[in-house]
């Protein structure tokens, strides 16, 4: 009996799988695609935030030999890059730099001490101690910087810019950026997974109840069949008994 029941159950499961409507399949595909995209977005935002905090605007960190800085002013917007851009600066031997090159350097001026400035070289000179240095300027104002830049403060040569990307990473560092780009996607992912778990649990319980009901129906049918056979046997015995009495 158990073997027959198992065969019927397996057969019913295979039939139910074949009978899944195309619309339901499409909904499953859309749902799984949405979850996958949500996971990718949430993880990507988290990685971008970690990279932004630990790498950008850090003189002691680099990515594949490049330092990344977020432009905070428009002092070079007339020719090369503007505020909100993300620029890449490559390590270079200061002795190889020439007039017209754009360099990132650590400022020693009183109004921007310690900040990273990226300006163009106007000329090559020496400082008060005779050390080689560069006269730099911002192309927007065309005004020379206050203090010549000696080799020890040069951080690298400007290589490339990613327009507007710096604004995005600055936004990630803010509370609204964290909420909208990281917290909300993860909450949505948790909610979707929770709904999916509840749905699967209910589906499992429904299938379990259906199988139990099928088993009960099968047992009841077998009992009814057994009772019918018993009744037939008793009827046959009764008929045989009447026949023997008639013979006597």
TrEMBL record:
GO molecular function: signal peptidase activity
InterPro entries: Peptidase_S26 (IPR019533), Peptidase_S26B (IPR001733)
Highest taxon in the source lineage: Bacteria
Keywords attached to this entry: Coiled coil, Hydrolase, Membrane, Transmembrane, Transmembrane helix
The enzyme's E.C. designation: 3.4.21.89
Spans through the membrane: 34-56, 177-201
Coiled coil: 205-246
The protein's name in its UniProt record: Signal peptidase I
């Amino acid at each position: 009996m158990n073997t027959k029941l198992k065969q019927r159950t397996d057969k019913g499961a295979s039939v139910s799988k074949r009978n899944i409507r195309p619309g339901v399949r499409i909904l499953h595909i859309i749902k799984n695609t949405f979850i996958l995209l949500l996971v990718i977005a949430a993880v990507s935002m988290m990685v971008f935030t970690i990279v932004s905090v630990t790498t950008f605007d850090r003189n002691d960190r680099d990515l594949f030999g490049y330092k990344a800085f977020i432009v905070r002013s428009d002092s070079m917007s007339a020719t090369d890059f503007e505020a909100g851009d993300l620029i890449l600066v490559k390590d270079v031997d200061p002795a190889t730099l020439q007039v017209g090159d754009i360099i990132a350097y650590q400022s020693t001026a009183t109004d921007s001490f310690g900040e990273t400035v990226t300006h163009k070289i106007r000329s090559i000179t020496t400082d008060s101690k005779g050390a080689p240095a560069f006269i730099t300027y911002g192309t927007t104002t065309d005004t020379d910087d206050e203090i010549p830049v000696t080799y020890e403060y040069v951080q690298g040569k400007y290589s490339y810019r990613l327009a507007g990307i710096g604004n995005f990473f600055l936004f990630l560092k803010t509370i609204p950026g964290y909420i909208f780009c990281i917290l909300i996607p993860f909450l949505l992912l948790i909610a979707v997974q929770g709904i999916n778990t509840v749905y699967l649990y209910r589906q499992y319980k429904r299938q379990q109840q259906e199988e139990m009901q099928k088993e009960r129906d099968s047992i009841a049918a077998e009992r009814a069949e057994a009772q019918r056979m018993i009744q037939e046997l008793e009827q046959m015995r009764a008929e045989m008994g009447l026949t023997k009495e008639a013979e006597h």
